[in-house]
Amino acid sequence: MSTFAQMIENITPEIYESLKTAVEIGKWSDGRKLTVEQKELSLQAVIAWEMQNLPEDQRTGYMGPQECASKSAPIANILFKSDSVH
């Protein structure tokens, strides 16, 4: 495989699950520990595969629509009082 993109196209759902598990636990299925480089490349492969094969809400890191809690509470205006004289 000459490019990363070609490699991603050849990842099956089973390989994807194996890579994802390896990244999550830091070990290959045979118990060997992933190197830092293997973990980085595997995570990149997982994310790239998900972008091509999964809806956004099922991808790694998806947080969904969220609203800041402070957005719903009114904030008192302490700079200008409504009873100030103009």
UniProtKB/TrEMBL annotation:
Pfam families: DUF1315 (PF07023). InterPro entries: DUF1315. This is DUF1315 family protein. The lineage of its organism: Bacteria, Pseudomonadati, Pseudomonadota, Gammaproteobacteria, Pseudomonadales.
